Automatic annotation (TrEMBL):
ATP binds at residues 100, 140, 145-151, 174-177, 182, 205, 259-260. SUPFAM superfamilies: Glutathione synthetase ATP-binding domain-like, PreATP-grasp domain, Rudiment single hybrid motif. This is N5-carboxyaminoimidazole ribonucleotide synthase. InterPro entries: ATP-grasp, ATP-grasp_carboxylate-amine, ATP_grasp_subdomain_1, PreATP-grasp_dom_sf, PurK, PurK_C, PurT/PurK_preATP-grasp, Rudment_hybrid_motif. Pathway: Purine metabolism; IMP biosynthesis via de novo pathway; 5-amino-1-(5-phospho-D-ribosyl)imidazole-4-carboxylate from 5-amino-1-(5-phospho-D-ribosyl)imidazole (N5-CAIR route): step 1/2. Keywords: ATP-binding, Ligase, Nucleotide-binding, Purine biosynthesis.
Amino acid sequence: GSTIGILGGGQLGRMIASAAADLGYRTHVLAPDRESVAAQTASSLTRADYHNKVVLADFAAQVDVVTYEFENVAAGPVEWLAERVPVYPGPKSLAVAQDRVKEKSFVEQVGGRPARWQAVTSREELDAAIAAIGCPAVLKTTRFGYDGKGQARLASPTDADAAWEAIGGPAVLEAFVEFSHEFSIVLVRGRDGAMTSYPPPWNEHRDGILHRSTLPAPPEIARQWTEAAALTGRIADALDHVGVLTCEYFASADGPVFNEMAPRVHNSGHWTIEGAATSQFANHVRAICGLPLGDTGLTAAQVAMENLIGDEWERWPEIVAEPDAYLHLYGKRESRAGRKMGHVTRVTR
Ligand code: ATP
Ligand code: MG
Ligand code: MG
C-alpha cells in the first residue's frame, strides 16, 4: 500500500508509473507542465512549480518514497524533499549527473576515462582549451543539455567564434572520439547495495538523438562490456546510488570511453520491456522500494528498439500490424521535429 512520488511528467515517468502499478504501488506525479503524459498512468498528479514549498510539503505528505524521471529537476527542491522523505537516487547522484564538469571529474576519480576535456567559462578559455585538446572537438553546455541540444562541433579552431556564439559558457570542450560503436550500461542498484546490469545495446544516433538500440551487441561492444560494466558499478557504489543508473560509452580502439551518465531509467533501456526478464522500469521500482532486484537477462535471440521521432509515429497503423513488433505511443498531444513521440521494439524469438 505504498505510494511512489515521481518528479517529472514525461514518458519515462509514465513507464515507471506503469511498472509501479504492476507491483501494486500507487504513484503520484509532480510535474510542472500542463500536459503530463505520466498522469495518464499514475494514480494522481500535482501540476506545480517545484519551488513552491506548500506544494512540495503536500506532495511529501502523500508519498512514501520519491524518485525522478529527468535529471534537470532543480537540486534545491530535491534536497528539501530528501530531508522529509527518502529520495532515490539521492541528491549526490543528481548533483553529479547534472553537471558535466562534476560528472567527468567524478568518473576520473573512480578510474574511468572520458574523452580529453577542459572546462570553459570564457571565450579566452575556449582558445586555451582548443590549444590543449585540439580539433575536431565538441563544445557542450555544462548543464541542461539533452538529445544533442546544447552542443556544437568544432572541425577546426576557426569554428571557435561560431561555437562560442551558439553555446557560450559555462561549458566543456571535449575531444571528438573516434569510435566504431556507441553503447550503454543500464545498471540497477538496490538500497542494500546489491547490483546488476543489463547486456549492453548498440546505440545508433541520428542528429544527436537516439535512433535505435540493438541486441545482442556486435563483438566490438561485447569485448568492452566487462570493463564498462565494472566502471559503471564503481560509479554507482561511489555515489551510493539507488535505482537505475545509465552510462553511455564509445567503443574505441583503446577500449570504452565514458561519454555521460543519467541517474535514471534511459531510452536505451526501453528494449528491456519486452526483451529482458525484468524491465528497467520494474527494476527501478524494485530498487527504490527495497525489493530484491530482478533478472536482467536477454530473453530473445534479437531485440531492436527504434524511436518514433517527430511525425514518424504516424506510421503506427503499419507497425501495429507487424508480427513481433511492440508499439509504445506516449500520448503526447503535439508532435514537433525532434520530439520523441513513441518507440517500437521488434523481437526475434
Ligand atoms: P542525451 O542526454 O539525450 O543522450 P546529450 O545532449 O547529453 O544527449 P551527448 O550524449 O553528450 O548529448 O551527445 C549526443 C551524441 O553526440 C552522442 O551520443 C554521440 O553520438 C555524439 N557525441 C557527443 N560527444 C561526442 C564526442 N566527444 N565524440 C564523438 N561523438 C560525440
Ligand atoms: Mg545527456
Ligand atoms: Mg547522451
